[in-house]
Structure formats: structure tokens, C-alpha cells
């Protein structure tokens, strides 16, 4: 017979009542206990207990808890039996190594009561009737305890040390002492626990007579008040004390363990907690994934945080409490999480909209954050159901209400004077570079003046009267002659004209503009008083707000010092495409009517600001058809709009992505990837990378050090493994072998299997013979060779390796050398025409912490032993501040042409883009604007750095015919950015024109924007879409021989080409071939130039950065 306690069945106050008996399976009606209710084998017992039965516990409680601390100090002897036998549900709430305990009380009790008031009224009744002294304890007797929490927990340990010294000893012993204490030091505890277990087993195992006898014993022993005895669902054979309580009423089943795991599985609000109070809401309304460390999952850019506002908000509250000025994600999370708590307390939507604007002030957040946080939206369950709360301009006051900001945290409220700029701790004597902190991220700087709309178009003046009792609004491109019949005007004169707006109940003279002539829409003849009209103008600032910046306007990239200027706008002012209610892209207006799908775009991105190393920095509509870029220009309906590109017609078969105010770049290429784990793909695409190539087979020791996918089988398997991932891939075979002439057979086999390149790595032996052999194979099959040269100079020095190249094209990885290469002067290769050099991102840019992180990074990556002096010497030879600082300068002048990650092997796959722009920003601060810049902008530097991870790696590896820029007829692999987040967090990523990754809020929300907004997979990453929207790059010979076709890939295989004809001159905006020297003793790097004054030596160096843009302003961790 199993006994359950159903807390919602029926509760009686814990006072003595007449004993009566509930029977089940023939139990006779006689007194079992006081206050028993019976329902389907579930028994609720309200019994009296004696000091003997509960070992003194009831004495303590009847005294109003005044002896509560005595119980704890005396050894817990009576404490366990009560909680084990009768109050196991109670212990479930309050015990979790005290970490859960503090969390419960951190919620301010209101959340605690709120949880149980929804269908647990009986539970509250117990607390109200039987535990009236409970509040007294915590209000009066434990007021110092609360004070401890208020003081920032510093006194918390002191309290436990002073009053609970034995308890602390238990936990500080690492639990091994815990057992010892329970066995030896708390022998009374074990006795009690054993007794309690036996009683429960008696209750569970014995037949009905034993249960009756037990209940009689309990009743007969009751001499001091009435207490609830819970017979919990304990399996007969478990051999354990009761550990679970189930609340089965009202769809709120609760299962608890002594570790305080709680699950609310009912009503789409499942909650699972650990002792660290991690919470998972798996229900359809509240998707939440958490860990004990405040629920952080890194899903994007190595920093994308998938968490709830409540848990990210807890991190933000802790930081705020210690005086840290909050960044963007912290500010949003704190406001959202506190709003959720206030919803639970009963505040209304309108009240929360006001409250949300008072939590944080300008002084409590980093400079620029108030402008980044334009609004915060949440959806929460109110008493009247789920509702949307929107807080506009939430950070507007000088100082926020910190009591409100820390609401429910029980954290100390810091004085307002605490909030100052915290500088990075650096050597005060060292010269450092600091990115500006007080910048407006993504600011748009418009030119003064106005934009002339519909310039040169004929106009007609019409007298229009609205006879309707409702307002009539007419969109700008609506055929005016066809508008509402309640408008009275000369409709013949209006044929072929359009209007903006007309209000109700009045008459006025309006000016209409002539549409573009055509066959669709109204059938018209030009009549009436048509004449050239006055200039219609719009303020440039308003225009930029509506349609994005136009020619001559400037935009800051993220929070960097880099400012671009729009070089050209392809729009026809007054005929812009814009989607929305009452706007342009409607049938027969901006959208052409009756056009088959073959004649219109699949997707148009309207009014986008294109930033591209080839196309330039231009404004226009981007047309996409069949996964390819059709063109960038003026899209729309040629029958009603001027200047429409015939390739960019918008029809009923066209989807629209609003690009107003967004920057669009080509998807990034990461050309140095160690394929160590498949999770790299998610990190990469979330950062804006759409193509990855390199080598590896997983976390094999060879792959963790080298980008080689060795052998035909591994090459095939990696293609199959990545076939469902929404990125373009390519795999490099192992190039380390040698033969005296011709093509080595092992290299031939790998290229025939589909290797799109070959990798030479010193860990496999980058000997002169291996280099020559590999380059011969590359020339034979038109593929690229990537090399990691000989750091040890074991078989050759850098000049010897250059000689072995013999003018043949080769891509040198991490050309500075911290990632590996001839020590200390591998940088000399940047002066070779046949060498296409790149950097990997851990040294980008040189900062105050760069040197300190690299030694351990290198030891792990290359399987070195810190106990072996030769391994340490090898590692230290690769880490040189002088050459790393020179690398910054060489990137800036275009001598190093590319950027890549070296993922998980001394590089970060999600930071290729971020670190590129951090380097560019640092170089502008150190070296100023480039002398070749035209105008007050950084356009050339921006295009130079953009080329490093787009067109140049595409050219280098024979992919530029398909990807790498936004030129016509290339794959529509696009990344859309909000200017404020450029380089840090993309807004949307498209693969072949299909949205694959995007910022997205709660799926159950009424709109897509309530928090938490984070990067998430979209449909382009699901199902069979990756096979349709992505490609795998392979060698041409593997396609020609039909080998790839035999793999059964869903992705299209594309051959690389043109790899062997390249020189440094082909590197877009990164083609400088300087003469470089590196001192072998001091490691100082010099640039040699020869002029009229003879040879000149320029020392290439720069100070480290102590603060970078695109860093702590954007990321939670």
C-alpha cells in the first residue's frame, strides 16, 4: 500500500480534532489519526506529536521558533525526523546546501507565496495557521540574518562560522568529511534518521494492521499540538527515506528531492531546478535553457547568450550591485527580468511601461548604451493572461532607482557614487592604446539640407472633398483615380496621378504627382491641369530615418572609430520601395501585377546600404533570384516608378526584407578551420561566416594541431558529416609527403577524393622536399597549398623555404608566426609576390593580455609538455611581442592580405569578423586616417579590412567566381547588420537568399521582438535546406571523374579554379609587397624603402591596446 499526500485535497488547521478513520481496501472505521481525509488511496494525516516522537522538535516550534537556533546548534537530532517523516515537502523548498535557500529568500518571499497560492491554498493555510511564528522568526528572531544578506553576504559566512561551526566544517570538508560527521559527530542524527526511516518503512511496507498500529501510536503520543504527517510516495523496495512530494492538483505536479529539484510540469510551465536553482521552461510558452551557473549557453560569436531575461538579469544585478556600469545585454536583461518579477506581483501593463523607465540611469550604464537600448519588450502571464509590455527609451534618467533595479535579488544597493568608469588594470608605465568609450555606436551622420522628391515630375492640382465620416488615408503610390468613392474630385484629371494623404470631413486642394506611364493599373489618358510642380523636399535626417542614409551621409561602424560614407544611392527619390501598411510595395503600385515568377525577383532587400570591397559602399535594393544576386539597383514596378532596373521587378512572387537602416556585407570566409567539433558551424554562422574550409576529422590529436583531413576516406566522411550544416565547406588534404618528381600518389588520391587544397604543417614535417612535392601536385590539379612553416628552423630557414617556393603561389598561414612558422622572421614572406599571407585571429590586434594567454594556448594545441624544457623553448620561440605588434601595422598597410580563425587550435572561430574590425579601429587610432582616403571618411580602410575575410580568401582558394563579394551572379550569401552592432552581432544571415540565422525573440510571443532576443536557427538551417542553399568546394578532377557524385551529397559540389595563376597583386586592396627585416636577437621589425636619400628603415611597431571596441559593450561573458 502506497501512501501519497495530496496537498490540495483538503486541509484542516493544525489543531486537535476528533479522530476518525479513512478506509481503503477494507480498513475498518476506527480512529487512525486526527484530521484524516480519504481519497483514492491518498491519505492526509493531521496528527499530534510528542517531544519523544519528534525528538524535541515540536517543543522548539511550539515556543515560537525561539529555540530554532538551539535545534541547529544542538546537533539537529530532532530536526531530521520532522522533515523526513512529516515535512519532506518543506525541506524540499528550503534545503539545497543553502544555495537554493538563499535563492528562495532572494525572491523576497512574494515569489515563494505566489508559487503556492496557485492551487495550494491548503499549503498556505498550514503556514498561516500552524506557522504563525514563522514570520516572527524571520522578522524578529532572524533580523540579523536578513541584515547579513543585505550586507552583501560578507557576513553570511561569519554567521555560519559563529553559530553553525560544525555545519560549515561539514561542507568545507568536501563532503568526505560530511559522511564522517554524520557517522561520528552526529551519531544522534543517524539514530534519528534511522528511526525515521524505519517508521516510514513501517508505513509503506506493513499491511493495514501495521499501518493502523502506527497511526494509533502517533495519536496516542500526541501531547503537544497537532502536526501534519506526510506519508510520501516511497517505493516499498526502495530502502530509502522519503525523498519526494507530489502536488498533483490543478496541473501543477511538483516532484521534489532532498536536493531541491522541483518540476512544474503542468500548464506549459515546466520548471526543473537544481540545487543551484537552475530553471528550464520547456513548455510551449516559455522556452528556457539554463545551467547552474545562471543559465548561460554560448550560441553565437563565441558569446551569443541563450538564456532568459531572469537569469541573465541576475548576472546583471550582481554586477550592478558591485558598481559595474552595465553594457547592452546586461541592461536589457536586468530591465526585462525585473519587469517579469513585477508582473508576478500584480502590476499592470501601463504601470510597468512607466516603471521600466526608472530602473537604470545614464550613469549606471556604459556610454552609448542608452542610445542602443531603444526599447525593451517582454511577454508575461498576467492575471488576465499573457500580455506584451513595451518600455520605450528605458534609460533616460541621470540615475536610476537602484532599489527597483535590484528588486528581488536581496543584494546590497550601492551608493550612486560607486558608478565610475572602470579602467583596465595595466602597468602604469606602459604605453597603451585605448578605444574611445564615449561613442554613439552605429550613429548616422547626415549631410545638412533636404532631399528633393519626385524631381521633374508633372503635377496636377485637384480639389478633393472627403464626404465620409471616417478618415481616408491614401498611400503615396496608390492610383489616385481609384481611391475611396467617398472622396469627391475630378477623377478624370486624376488619371495617372498619385497622392500622399487626405483627412476626413473637409475639403482642400491637393497636389498629385504623375506616375510612370505603363500598361498596368488604371487605363488612363493625361487630362486636366498638368504642369511642372514646385519642389517637394524632405529633410535629410528624416529621410535617413525612413529609408536609411543616402549619398554623402556617414555611418559609424559599431562603437569603433571607423566612419563610412555612402558613395552612391541608386534610389529614385520619391519612388523608393518600402513595405508596410499603406506603403509602396502593394499590388499595382510598387509591386507589379500579373507577372509570372520567372519575371520577378524571389527576394528583394529594400534600401540596403551595401558595404563591399568590390562593389563599394552604395545604397540600393538587392535583388535575389534562384539563390543568386541578380543585381543592386532600383527595384519595384516599372509601370508606376521611374528608374526601375528591368532585372529587379517586384511581383506577387517576391518576398521583401526591409533593409532600411541596415548594412549588408558578403558572408565571411574562414580559410583556416580545424574541424574539431561540429558546433563550430553554429558559432561561425552566428558571427557572419558563411563559408568554412580547412581540415580535420574531429577532436583527433592530429586535427587539434593541423588543418589536414588525411586520406580519401576521411575526406569523403567529412563531406558527408557536414552535408546538413548550412554553410559552404571545403576540405584540405595532408600535403606532407615527398617524391623526387611528378605527383606523389598519396597526394593524388586525396585530390581525386575531393580535397580542394593541400596543407603543409610543421607538425607533420614541412621540409623542403615536402614543400616542393606538394606544390607540384597543386600545379597539376589547380588547387591551393597552405603552409605552416618550420618554427624550429630544423631543416631550413625562411630564405631557404622561399627559395623552395620557386615563385609558385602559396598561402602562408599565421604569417606573423605566433601560430607557427620560421622563428623569428617568418614575416619576411610578406614581400614575396607569390606568397598570399594571412593572419589568424588570437594575435589580432596586439593587446595587453595577448602575450599572457598564448603560452598555454600553444602548449595545448600542439600537444606539448610543460614539463619538458625543449617543448617550453619551442613554444616560447613563437610568442614575440615585437613581431605581433608589427603584424598590426602590416595588416593596416595591406601587406598581410587575409584574416582567418585557426579555430580551437589557437584561434576563435566566431571572432574572425570582430577581430578584423578591432584591428582596423586600433590602427586608425595609432596611425590616423590613411593618406589615400578621399573625403572625411574611412572608406578605403573599411574596404581593405573587409576584403581580408571576403574576396581575398575567395580569390586565393579559387572560389571567387561564386562567393566573396556582392557582385552580380554570385551566391546570395549575405549578412545584414544594424550599424550599432556591426562586427559584433549580425541581425540576419542569408544563405543563397534563404534566411538561415537571425536575431529572434520568444516563439510564443505576439510579435518577434520580446526578450530574450538572440541569434537562432531559421528555416534555412532546417530540414533539407542546407543541401539546397550551400555548396561543397572540391577539386575539379574529382568532379570530372565522377567521384564526388558517388558520395550521395545533397549539396552541390563546385570545383575550385584559378588558384595557380595568382600573385600578391591580385589581393584586393591588400597587395603591398614590402621588404621586411627582422632582427634575430631583438625581434624588431623594419620596413626597408629606397629613395633619393638612400635606404630608409622604418621600425614597424605599435603599443598594445588596453581597451578595444566591439568587446565588453556587447557581450555578457
UniProtKB/TrEMBL annotation:
The entry's keywords:
Hydrolase, Membrane, Metal-binding, Nickel, Transmembrane, Transmembrane helix
List residues binding Ni(2+) 2.
759, 788, 814
Q: How is the cofactor bound?
A: Binds 2 nickel ions per subunit.
Protein's UniProt name: urease
Keyword Hydrolase among record annotations: yes
Annotated Gene Ontology cellular component terms: urease complex
Q: What class of enzyme is it?
A: hydrolase
* GO MF annotation list: nickel cation binding; urease activity
Mind telling me which InterPro entries this protein's record contains? Amidohydro-rel, Metal-dep_hydrolase_composite, Metal_Hydrolase, Urease_alpha_N_dom, Urease_AS, Urease_asu, Urease_asu_c, Urease_beta-like
TM ranges are 76-99, 111-134, 146-170, 177-200
One of the GO biological process terms: urea catabolic process
Q: What is its EC number?
A: 3.5.1.5
Q: Which NCBIfam families match?
A: PRK13207.1, urease_alph, urease_gam
Instruction: Share the record's PTM remark.
Output: Carbamylation allows a single lysine to coordinate two nickel ions.
**Organism annotation:** Pomacea canaliculata (Golden apple snail)
Task: From the UniProt record, give the pathway where this protein acts.
Answer: Nitrogen metabolism; urea degradation; CO(2) and NH(3) from urea (urease route): step 1/1
* One Pfam family here: Urease_alpha
Report if keyword Transmembrane is assigned: yes
Q: Which domain of life is it from?
A: Eukaryota
Could you tell me which SUPFAM superfamilies the record lists for this protein? Composite domain of metallo-dependent hydrolases (SSF51338), Metallo-dependent hydrolases (SSF51556), Urease, beta-subunit (SSF51278), Urease, gamma-subunit (SSF54111)
The residues annotated as the active site are: 862 (proton donor)
Cofactor(s) for this UniProt protein: Ni cation
Q: Which PANTHER family does the entry link to?
A: UREASE
Which positions are annotated as binding substrate? 761
**What range(s) does the Urease domain occupy?**
667-1117
Q: Which residues carry this modification: N6-carboxylysine?
A: 759
Amino acid at each position: 500500500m502506497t501512501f501519497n499526500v495530496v496537498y490540495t485535497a483538503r486541509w484542516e488547521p493544525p489543531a486537535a480534532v476528533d479522530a476518525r478513520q479513512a478506509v481503503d481496501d477494507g480498513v475498518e472505521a476506527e480512529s487512525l489519526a486526527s484530521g484524516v481525509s480519504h481519497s483514492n488511496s491518498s491519505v492526509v494525516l493531521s496528527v499530534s506529536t510528542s517531544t519523544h516522537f519528534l525528538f524535541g522538535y515540536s517543543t522548539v516550534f511550539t515556543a515560537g521558533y525561539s529555540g530554532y537556533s538551539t535545534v541547529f546548534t544542538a546537533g539537529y537530532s530532532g530536526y531530521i525526523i520532522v522533515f523526513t517523516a512529516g515535512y519532506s515537502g518543506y525541506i524540499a523548498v528550503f534545503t539545497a546546501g543553502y544555495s537554493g535557500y538563499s535563492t528562495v529568500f532572494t525572491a523576497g518571499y512574494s515569489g515563494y507565496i505566489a508559487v503556492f497560492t496557485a492551487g495550494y491554498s491548503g499549503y498556505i493555510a498550514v503556514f498561516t495557521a500552524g506557522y504563525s511564528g514563522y514570520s516572527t522568526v524571520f522578522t524578529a528572531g532572524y533580523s540579523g540574518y536578513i541584515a547579513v544578506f543585505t550586507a552583501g553576504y560578507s557576513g553570511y559566512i561569519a554567521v555560519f562560522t559563529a553559530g553553525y561551526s560544525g555545519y560549515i566544517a561539514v561542507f568545507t570538508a568536501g563532503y568526505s568529511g560530511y559522511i564522517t560527521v554524520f557517522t561520528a559527530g552526529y551519531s544522534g542524527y543517524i539514530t534519528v534518521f534511522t528511526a525515521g526511516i524505519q517508521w516510514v518503512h513501517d508505513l509503506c511496507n506493513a499491511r493495514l494492521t501495521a499501518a493502523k498500529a502506527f497511526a494509533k501510536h502517533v495519536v496516542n503520543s500526541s501531547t503537544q499540538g497537532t502536526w501534519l504527517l506526510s506519508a510520501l510516495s516511497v517505493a516499498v523496495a526502495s530502502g530509502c527515506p522519503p525523498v519526494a512530494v507530489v502536488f498533483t492538483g490543478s496541473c501543477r505536479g511538483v516532484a521534489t528531492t532532498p536536493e531541491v529539484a522541483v518540476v512544474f510540469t503542468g500548464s506549459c510551465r515546466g520548471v526543473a531546478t537544481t540545487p543551484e536553482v537552475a530553471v528550464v521552461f520547456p513548455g510551449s510558452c516559455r522556452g528556457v535553457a539554463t545551467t547552474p551557473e545562471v543559465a548561460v549557453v554560448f550560441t553565437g560569436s563565441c558569446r551569443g547568450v541563450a538564456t532568459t531575461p531572469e537569469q541573465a538579469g541576475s548576472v546583471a544585478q550582481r554586477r550592478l550591485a558591485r558598481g559595474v556600469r552595465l553594457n547592452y545585454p546586461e541592461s536589457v536583461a536586468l530591465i526585462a527580468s525585473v519587469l517579469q518579477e513585477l508582473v508576478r506581483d500584480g502590476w499592470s501593463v501601463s504601470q510597468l511601461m512607466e516603471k521600466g523607465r526608472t530602473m537604470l540611469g545614464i550613469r549606471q550604464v556604459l556610454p552609448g548604451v542608452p542610445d542602443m537600448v531603444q526599447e525593451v519588450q517582454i511577454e508575461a502571464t498576467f492575471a488576465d493572461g499573457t500580455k506584451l509590455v513595451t518600455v520605450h527609451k528605458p534609460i533616460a534618467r541621470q540615475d536610476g532607482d537602484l532599489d527597483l533595479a535590484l528588486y528581488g535579488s536581496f543584494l546590497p544597493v550601492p551608493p550612486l557614487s560607486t558608478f565610475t568608469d572602470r579602467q583596465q588594470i595595466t602597468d602604469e608605465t606602459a604605453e597603451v592604446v585605448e578605444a574611445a568609450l564615449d561613442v554613439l555606436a552605429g550613429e548616422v551622420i547626415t549631410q545638412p539640407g533636404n532631399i528633393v522628391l519626385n524631381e521633374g515630375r508633372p503635377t496636377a492640382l485637384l480639389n478633393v472633398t472627403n464626404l465620409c465620416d471616417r478618415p481616408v488615408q491614401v498611400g503615396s503610390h496608390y492610383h489616385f483615380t481609384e481611391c475611396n468613392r467617398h472622396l469627391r474630385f475630378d477623377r478624370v484629371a486624376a488619371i495617372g496621378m498619385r497622392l500622399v494623404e487626405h483627412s476626413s470631413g473637409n475639403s482642400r486642394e491637393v497636389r498629385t504627382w504623375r506616375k510612370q506611364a505603363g500598361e498596368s493599373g488604371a487605363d488612363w489618358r493625361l487630362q486636366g491641369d498638368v504642369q511642372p510642380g514646385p519642389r517637394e523636399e524632405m529633410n535629410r535626417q528624416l529621410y535617413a530615418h525612413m529609408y536609411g542614409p543616402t549619398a554623402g551621409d556617414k555611418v559609424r561602424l559599431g562603437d569603433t572609430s571607423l566612419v563610412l560614407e555612402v558613395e552612391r544611392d541608386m534610389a529614385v527619390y520619391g519612388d523608393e520601395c518600402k513595405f508596410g501598411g499603406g506603403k509602396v510595395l502593394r499590388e499595382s503600385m510598387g509591386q507589379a501585377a500579373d507577372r509570372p515568377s520567372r519575371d520577378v525577383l524571389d527576394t528583394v532587400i529594400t534600401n540596403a546600404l551595401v558595404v563591399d570591397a568590390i562593389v563599394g559602399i552604395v545604397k540600393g535594393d538587392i535583388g535575389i533570384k534562384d539563390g543568386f544576386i541578380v543585381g543592386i539597383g532600383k527595384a519595384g514596378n516599372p509601370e508606376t516608378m521611374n528608374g526601375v532596373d528591368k532585372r529587379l521587378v517586384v511581383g506577387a512572387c517576391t518576398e521583401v526584407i526591409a533593409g532600411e537602416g541596415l548594412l549588408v556585407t558578403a558572408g565571411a570566409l574562414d580559410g583556416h578551420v580545424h574541424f574539431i567539433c561540429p558546433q563550430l558551424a553554429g558559432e561561425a554562422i552566428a558571427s557572419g561566416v558563411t563559408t568554412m574550409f580547412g581540415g580535420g576529422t574531429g577532436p583527433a590529436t592530429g586535427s587539434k594541431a593541423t588543418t589536414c583531413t588525411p586520406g580519401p576516406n576521411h575526406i569523403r566522411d567529412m563531406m558527408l558529416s557536414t552535408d546538413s550544416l548550412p554553410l559552404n565547406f571545403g576540405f584540405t588534404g595532408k600535403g606532407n609527403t615527398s617524391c623526387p618528381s611528378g605527383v606523389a600518389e598519396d597526394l593524388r588520391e586525396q585530390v581525386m577524393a575531393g580535397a580542394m587544397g593541400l596543407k603543409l604543417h610543421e607538425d607533420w614535417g614541412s621540409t623542403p622536399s615536402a614543400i616542393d612535392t606538394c606544390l607540384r601536385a597543386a600545379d597539376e590539379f589547380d588547387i591551393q597549398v597552405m603552409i605552416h612553416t618550420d618554427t624550429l628552423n630544423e631543416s631550413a630557414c625562411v630564405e631557404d623555404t622561399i627559395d623552395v617556393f620557386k615563385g609558385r603561389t602559396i598561402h602562408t598561414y599565421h604569417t606573423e608566426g605566433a601560430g607557427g612558422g620560421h622563428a623569428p622572421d617568418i614575416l619576411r614572406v610578406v614581400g614575396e609576390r607569390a606568397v598570399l599571407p594571412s593572419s589568424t585571429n588570437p594575435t589580432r590586434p596586439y593587446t595587453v593580455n595577448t602575450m599572457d594567454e598564448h603560452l598555454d594556448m600553444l602548449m595545448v594545441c600542439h600537444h606539448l609538455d610543460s614539463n619538458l624544457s625543449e617543448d617550453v623553448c619551442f613554444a616560447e620561440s613563437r610568442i614575440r611581442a615585437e613581431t605581433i605588434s608589427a603584424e598590426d601595422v602590416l595588416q593596416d598597410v595591406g601587406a598581410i592580405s587575409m584574416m582567418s580563425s585557426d579555430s580551437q587550435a589557437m584561434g576563435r572561430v566566431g571572432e574572425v569578423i570582430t577581430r578584423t574590425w578591432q584591428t582596423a579601429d586600433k590602427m586608425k587610432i595609432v596611425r590616423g586616417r590613411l593618406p589615400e582616403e578621399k573625403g572625411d571618411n574611412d572608406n578605403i580602410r573599411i574596404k581593405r579590412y573587409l576584403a581580408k575575410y571576403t574576396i581575398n580568401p575567395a580569390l586565393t582558394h579559387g572560389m571567387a567566381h561564386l562567393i566573396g563579394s556582392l557582385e552580380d551572379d554570385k551566391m546570395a550569401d549575405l549578412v545584414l547588420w544594424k550599424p550599432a552592432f556591426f562586427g559584433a552581432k549580425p541581425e540576419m544571415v542569408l544563405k543563397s537568399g534563404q534566411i538561415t540565422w537571425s536575431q529572434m525573440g520568444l516563439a510564443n510571443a505576439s510579435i518577434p521582438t520580446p526578450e530574450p532576443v538572440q541569434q537562432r536557427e531559421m528555416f534555412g538551417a532546417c530540414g533539407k535546406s542546407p543541401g539546397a542553399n550551400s555548396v561543397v568546394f572540391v577539386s575539379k578532377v574529382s568532379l570530372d571523374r565522377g567521384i564526388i557524385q558517388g558520395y550521395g551529397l545533397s549539396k552541390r559540389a563546385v570545383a575550385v579554379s584559378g588558384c595557380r595563376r595568382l600573385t600578391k597583386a591580385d589581393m584586393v586592396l591588400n597587395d603591398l609587397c614590402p621588404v621586411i627585416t627582422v632582427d634575430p636577437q631583438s625581434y624588431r621589425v623594419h620596413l626597408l624603402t629606397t629613395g633619393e636619400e638612400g635606404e630608409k628603415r622604418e621600425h614597424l611597431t605599435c603599443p598594445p591596446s588596453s581597451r578595444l571596441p566591439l568587446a565588453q559593450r556587447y557581450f555578457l561573458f
